[in-house]
Amino acid sequence: MRRIMLCLSLIWGAAVAQADTGKTVEDAINFHVLPRMAQLQATTDSLSKAALADCTAESPYLRQAYDVAFDAWLNVSHLQFGPLQSPARRAKFADPTSATQGFFALEHAMFAPKAAGASAAGCQAIQEITAGLAHVSSEVLAGWQVWAVEVNTATGVRSPAFRDPVVREQFVKAVQDGLQDTIDLRLALPLGTADAPQPMLAEARLSLRSQRHIWLSIASVAELSEILGQDRPHLQAELAQVFEAALNTSIATYDPVLDGVADLDHRAQWVETQHMLNAIKLRVSDLSEGAGGA
Q: Distance between CA 191 and CA 193 in Å, rounded?
């Protein structure tokens, strides 16, 4: 746990150190979006190559590449605008209903009971999915690079879609949407009700990543909020504190697939995390252009 928090503190510290007051939008693009999109492209490319080398679900190299690439996807999953506005493109990353698209389809192919990874058909599915992820990641990175040039252009008349206040608002919404996804999908679904918890609905349960998805998604939007708050230091400090508290709560007990939602003693951890994220989401609105946050 200490190691996790140390890594997160280093991430946040680096974001603040590189931030340039008055260039919030540019910093969000240059220090948050582009490095993470490049990481996604690199890791999905490695994942595709690992599947070509050994497509069996039991391959330790494939599993390691899967974890690293899935982490990279979690780190950008809140950025659902710009080049990712196309629903078709988003689906290629995360659509759980498609047999040949998305990380969740890949998880099913690799980790579902009696997964057919050792069969010719299962091997082909794993290779097709990973190749698709690498291809789409490359497209998305290229799209963000073009989009960044449009936003960062210092001369000429910008399209209204690329004006700083508009883009800043998109980034603020990305923080809020990322929090809402964790609140609704990663927490509310498995929490169910006290009388009827649903741990089997935990995200990425098959690959034992459910808790990891919660703290990674929180950490990702926390970094973005840190950059967006550079011109509002008091709000920036407040958000850093409450994000850290939510992260500490989310890792307080080792619960990799959220079985704890069915245990009264451990369920409180996830209910409290959900409440904290709801409160943070409301406070994040003060990062918007013209908001009254200090």
A: 6
What are the per-10-residue average pLDDT scores of the chain (294 residues)? 46 42 77 96 97 91 96 94 64 46 89 66 88 93 88 57 78 96 97 95 96 97 95 93 96 95 92 97 88 57
Is residue 243 within 8 A of residue 225, CB to CB? The reply is yes
Q: Phi/psi at 163 (nearest 5 deg)? A: -75, 145
- Choose among 207, 165, 174: nearest CA to 291: 165
Distance CA 72, CA 37 (A): 8
Model pTM score:
0.85
Rounded Cα distance between 228 and 164, Å, is: 12
Give the C-alpha separation, 283 to 277, whole Å.
Answer: 10
Question: How far apart, in whole angstroms, are the C-alpha atoms of residue 218 and residue 249?
Answer: 11
| Structure tokens belonging to residue 233 | 């230091």
- The angle, 0 to 180 degrees and rounded to 10, between the axes of the packed helices 60-74 and 103-111 is 150
pLDDT at 94: 53
